[in-house]
């Protein structure tokens, strides 16, 4: 008997009868990328570094998808003045862009000059009033990289510490920083805390002077007075100036008051004031007769300098003798001076004719 095969009914898949919708392919969006333009390199400015310009040019060339041949073809459009003449004179030797970069570095690169300049700036770089900690840190790190690319972390931290403001310096001094990132992290924390304070405008400090405080809301009157005193001393000491009462009055502010005090204090150093000056005669002009006065001529050395009586008196206002310098009497009644004249009269030789003439004159 043939074996009966059991057949199981096949279940139809419900999804087989439903047509599957294929999503449409995305339409590509074409975007136009604007090309970037490098800056112009002239080679005349001492502050323009050839290596920095080449680095910026390569970045822009990468953005614009320029290969070496395109870079060599377009570089002439970004050269001017001396650099353009140099390119015209040596254009035949530029076989590729690498040769051009090496030749440009040899011709216009002043690595040693920039290194010395960075070292000088690094010695005097300080954080100024209103300057953020991030700006100061990045500038100092840039100078460190130019001065010595292989500078250690300890030296960088030392350069960063020595120019910080006084209040932040005292805060950072108690901590030991071995790495630059630790120093930067701590400075950012202090900077974020200081931004929460209310600030106000402040006067301008002298350049290359380390600030007493990094905050801009503290009025440092002492620094203002120091600045005014330096200005007045610079005006007084190089040359003598005579101050009169005919000077226009300045507005009543702190600067004018300090200037007046400095002028009164340093007046004996510049020139003594004439105390007993001769009063000017008031002349009245006649209305009937118009008289033309002759031009005035300035009299030179006409005023006799007054004696410095304050130097010839003691603290208790006792006069000092101009001859012997002892207190209690003046030159007229000085005993030593009288003794000199008496000795001179006693030591003179005898002349009978002269004595007879004197006696006849007296009689």
UniProtKB/TrEMBL annotation:
Q: Name one GO molecular function term.
A: zinc ion binding
**Which superkingdom heads the taxonomic lineage of this protein's source?**
Eukaryota
The reply on keyword Nucleotide-binding is: no
This protein's UniProt keywords: Metal-binding, Zinc, Zinc-finger
Q: Where is the composition biased (Low complexity)?
A: 279-293
Give the span(s) annotated as Disordered. 269-308
Please tell me whether the keyword Zinc-finger is annotated for this protein: yes
For this protein, the record's InterPro entries field holds: Znf_CCHC, Znf_CCHC_sf
Q: Where is the CCHC-type domain?
A: 321-336
Q: What is the name of the protein in this document? A: CCHC-type domain-containing protein
Q: Which organism is it from?
A: Araneus ventricosus
